[in-house]
User: Fold these one by one.
Assistant:
Number 1:
Amino acid sequence: MRMSRLLGSLAVAGLVAGIVMAFGVAPREVTQGNVQRIMYLHVPSVWVAYLAFVVVFVASIGYLAKRADAADWIAHASAEVGVLFTAVTIASGSIWGKPTWGTWWTWDARLTSVAILFVMYLGYLLLRGMIEDRERAARYSAVLGIIAALDLPLIHFSVYWWRTLHLPPSIVKPGAATMPPVILAALLVNFAAFTLLYAYFVVTRVRLLRREAEAMA
């Protein structure tokens, strides 16, 4: 409980700092104007979705190896948070894309692979809800969680392998970041804030899942 409260407080402080950096410190982008500020929501949401599904991948392997309930709870909680932030990623990207590209959505390689990821992890959550036996649901979900995570490298490298509307990464790439330091600083503050928010959601959800398991035992 103390850990959850601490993470919640840090996440709120981080989000406030992120808003101040995004709207009060970072300058207006010359080409795109104020619409570029959606980046401070969109890019950290992508990061959290990546992080969440990597955690699902690792925790699922851990569950299959040792059948530890804690690993299953972490995978379950992280998948729920990952689906939430993938939805935020898609929505914010569409809002950003309309004035920038002239369309809300296009089936290019990056967007299509993200949509596939979203659908696969929705299926992961549906699979858990459809199977009454908890151990069997955890086992099947772990397998799907591992398979679905294989889409992450496809998403990241799609801008290199195919022609897409997305530009290559500005941060997660070899060499230095290709953006002004003040914009990078604002983005990194929001990265930290969203990571804390992710941790808060997962810790809180794991605690609830543990209580549900104890009540059913």
Number 2:
Amino acid sequence: MPALYDAIGAGYGTTRRADPELADTLASLLALPATGRGLDLACGSGNYTAAMATRGGIWTGLDESATMLAQARQTAVPVNWVRGDAAMLPFADGSFDALLCALAIHHFAALDAPFAQAQRVLRAGGRFVIFTAFAEQMPAYWLGRYFPRMMARSIEKMPARAAVHSALRGAGFSSIEV
């Protein structure tokens, strides 16, 4: 089955940009050494991957969508772009010092395999930073007043906080902060 964004992702990168303040916060949380290796899981068109790469480290962006990766490859920032599945990462154990997953876990069929793979490819002491919303916080979003059906469908796809925590613990992550 083709990746969702192979069907709907044309032009996606032209309408989205990494928020500089958020990128600074993510980079701070990742604490990637200047010569460290970072992986952005489900990187999409690579906005945050490129933003992280400009802040230091050697970055790889992984996505299952060829359409999104084609857009990511348009950036002038040096990044290694890889097509692959977050549930079966094509990297050796302990390959990365930091992992990022921004606005993407709701696209995973299940959280267990991607999180286990993240734990496997992360070096000891490395950080895995997930930027997401939880299903239980979304009903309060202002968009719900204007687009109630769209928000209801989005909430159905978004994992609950407890599910994310459970999957992270199950993958072997012991220090989990929100």
Number 3:
Amino acid sequence: MRRMIGLQAIVVTLAMCGSTCLAGPPEIRLWPNGMPEPVVPADPAEVVEKRADGIQRRTNVSQPRLFVHEPPADVKRTGAAVIVVPGGGFGVLADEHEGSEAAAWLAKHGIVGFQLAHRAPTNKHPMPNEGPAQDLQKAVIEVRRHAGDYKVDPKKVGVLGFSGRLCSHRHGVVL
């Protein structure tokens, strides 16, 4: 009987909130009308998995996008935003501990966290950082473009990178 009541509570909760309870954070697609080369093929499909080491990784990202982590309603907003760039050596994105967790921490402190899912894998491309660097530059443009939607000052947009190779000036990334 308890199991039945518990199941009914889950069904009622899902009915009340619709698909938003199961959905992740809102997303901003970076290249809805096509992206510049080099691209990551859509086949195989994007995969998010937690491996034996307990670290969640995302790979086969062919549609770069931002996951938006806004401050909770009871937290005073600072007007700042940070684009969080997970590391992973251009083969995968360590997008939980170096992505969603960092963005959520920022949100709890009044900063809108934008978690970047950049093209991956690109570690076999002639210039592995080229596509991800384009995605980061486009992310800055999009965050500034959507600043009003997220109550962000477009002059207060920063980047937190866990991959020194992507965020390094020596690789030609200029924001």
Number 4:
Amino acid sequence: KGKRITLGPNEFYIDAQLPLAEVTKYKYVFNSVNEAAKHLTNGTEKLPMVLNIAPYVYWIDDPDDTTVRVPKPGNSSPFGLEIKCEWLKFYGLSDDAQNVVLASNRGQTMGAKGNFTMFKISGQGTSAENITFGNYCNIDLEYPLNPELNRKKRGSAIVQAQLVFCDGDKLFARNTRFVSRLNLCPFIGGKRTLFDRCHFECTDDALNGTAIYLNCSFDFYSGKPFWGTSGTGAVFLNCDINSFTRGEQYFTKSHGQVAVLDTRITSKTVTYLGWRDIP
């Protein structure tokens, strides 16, 4: 689009279609997210550490590796990639978030012992734009740009298959897709999170309970997308929720406040909508 990106210590380019012989010529060019993560520099709010990612499917955890992932000592979940970086930004080089996919396909008892989580990111200000974070343990990966990169789900039994743990403040995502089923975990753990024009697909215990969801869309496949919403609570502003739940659709399983404003909820199967089943 005529925009020039000057690479440097805080500005990387990642393109999986580049051969290794090509990327080794350039200090700030990589063909995998995992390799780029080894060379990060802490960013700031004004000058973040940016990963400019070309369209492709980037497997954060090797789906063909038959080794079962287990948690490290002291952790309850195994992680695909652990990153420590202040003000890290994932930036997809496409207006369509479906074109830049960061993927894994493991979950509890399916390739992992514990609730497998694709990313654990430590640092303030983690953000994403024009990206899909997907755990394809229980859903098929369909990549229209190159169907050769499609992959069938690992199994049909719905297990805990998680995406991103964070521990910082001021988390942000715009035009970003978060797709899995049970325990989606989109930027879970941060103090405050804003999602702008993002899309979510999930079942239970899935969404970030300390977040504002602005102009977002949701596919709910079961009745309790939040475990709880303590702290700031969760706010839906001008969102579209499409529910495939049969019977009652609730928001939380345990506790916490939820605000739903100017939001449209549609379903052919839901008979009742409420805050939680046992107040």
